[in-house]
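re: the backbone from monday

yeah here it is again, tokenized this time
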């Protein structure tokens, strides 16, 4: 999952009338989640070269998964291809909202076959329980990553962030920004809450994250409430910007956002780091699907294939900072840089044999030992309402002393401003009265 910045924009504006709808590809994607110039703008020409057919692109963006899903599930919008996160793919499959992707591309290579087997295995975990659905028939991965701590080593050491118990460290009072994303936070804190049970083999990590129960929700809520004095605020997208400017100590962050912040900070001479605590984290993915009400399914399938082409995958990774699911030799060659990443990483889980010690970005391609303690995030299903209630309680009860102090200052400034306005108004009134008397 995940760039969460809301705006609704049409990159190439067309009135999709009945006459041209069959030649229009309607794409619904996250904001800032594609290379517009080098990838999106090139698709119509490539499609014409492959099929001999014309297509126009209508491109719109959404801010959160649920708003996208509502447009399709309730509004029955005819988007041809959308890019939901894993738990929404899971929900859409369960509710019959997806069409199979026709991967018969004629003479055009099937680039979807370049998706890493590791990713295919994770996607298969999204299949509805008891079904024989092959998820890869309905969804093709796009980007992925992990969740961890983005931190400023001027104030925070890697040793202090080895465990999720850093959220209790009194040193970090009012210094932590947390993601305002209840599934993401729950999925990492639940691993900390049951760390002993996982270590003893009493609980399986994947089952723990997938099987959400009232008891488990309560344990996560207890931990978050205990940490409330350390939480400076809940953010969706501004945390990485605050980190990149050196204004914040640490941020629960998606790895792609962390990579973006690290690069931005480096431009002003600021160093930031990223770490996944020892208890584990979630590994998440966004993927392309063709919704139930899509019209131009042929162009949608070709677009998905186009996005899997290695050169386009590289363009998109360079643009957005997240990691493509494509595991081709071209991607590996692009990713390796011994000077930039002197410590070798075991990336064999992603690129296969022979990549047990490669010099790649560990934020984008974590070591195998890190990935082995990461679980896929799932849809909350029947527990969604309980999760939301828990989340609202945690955030509603999360006025730390630092936050209260800031709120108090704002209130005092407002009061002072009002008093000054009243005094100035009275002075003006008195002055006018004096002039009248003169």
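seq for it, each position gets an aa:
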């Amino acid at each position: 999952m995940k760039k969460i910045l809301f705006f609704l924009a049409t990159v190439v504006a067309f009135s999709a009338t009945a006459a041209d709808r069959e030649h229009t590809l309607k794409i619904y994607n996250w904001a800032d989640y594609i290379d517009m110039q080098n990838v999106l703008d090139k698709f119509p020409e490539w499609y014409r070269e492959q099929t001999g057919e014309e297509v126009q692109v209508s491109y719109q963006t959404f801010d959160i998964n649920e708003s996208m899903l509502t447009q399709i599930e309730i509004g029955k919008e005819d988007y041809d291809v959308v890019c939901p996160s894993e738990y929404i793919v899971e929900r859409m499959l369960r509710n019959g909202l997806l069409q199979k992707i026709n991967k018969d591309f004629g003479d055009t290579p099937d680039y979807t076959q370049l998706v890493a087997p590791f990713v295919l295995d994770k996607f298969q975990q999204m299949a509805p329980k008891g079904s024989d659905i092959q998820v890869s028939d309905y969804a093709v991965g796009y980007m992925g990553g992990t969740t961890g701590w983005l931190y400023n080593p001027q104030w925070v050491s890697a040793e202090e962030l080895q465990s999720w118990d850093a959220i209790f460290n009194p040193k970090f009072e009012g210094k932590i920004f947390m993601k305002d994303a209840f599934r993401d936070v729950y999925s990492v804190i639940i691993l900390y809450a049951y760390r002993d049970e996982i270590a003893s083999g009493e609980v399986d990590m994947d089952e723990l994250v997938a099987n959400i129960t009232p008891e488990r929700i309560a344990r996560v809520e207890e931990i978050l409430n205990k940490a409330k004095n350390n939480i400076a605020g809940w953010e969706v997208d501004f945390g990485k910007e605050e980190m990149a400017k050196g204004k914040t100590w640490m941020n629960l962050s998606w790895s792609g956002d962390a990579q973006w912040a690290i690069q931005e900070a480096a431009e002003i001479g600021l160093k930031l780091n990223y770490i996944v605590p020892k208890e584990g984290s979630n590994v998440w993915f966004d993927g392309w699907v063709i919704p139930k009400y899509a019209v131009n399914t042929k162009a949608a399938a070709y677009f998905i294939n186009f996005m899997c082409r290695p050169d386009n995958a590289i363009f998109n990774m360079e643009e957005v900072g997240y990691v493509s699911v494509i595991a081709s030799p071209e991607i590996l060659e692009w990713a390796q840089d011994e000077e930039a990443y002197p410590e070798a990483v075991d990336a064999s889980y992603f690129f296969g044999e022979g990549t047990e010690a490669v010099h790649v970005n560990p934020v984008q391609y974590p070591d195998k030992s890190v990935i082995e303690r990461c679980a896929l995030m799932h849809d909350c299903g029947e527990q969604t309402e309980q999760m939301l209630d828990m989340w609202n309680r945690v955030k509603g009860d999360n006025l730390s002393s630092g936050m209260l102090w800031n709120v108090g200052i704002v209130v005092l400034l407002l009061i002072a401003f009002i008093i000054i306005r009243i005094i100035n108004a009275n002075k003006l009134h008195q002055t006018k009265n004096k002039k009248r008397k003169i």
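The chain has two domains: 21-144+285-371, 145-283+377-396. The two ends are 72 Å apart (CA to CA).
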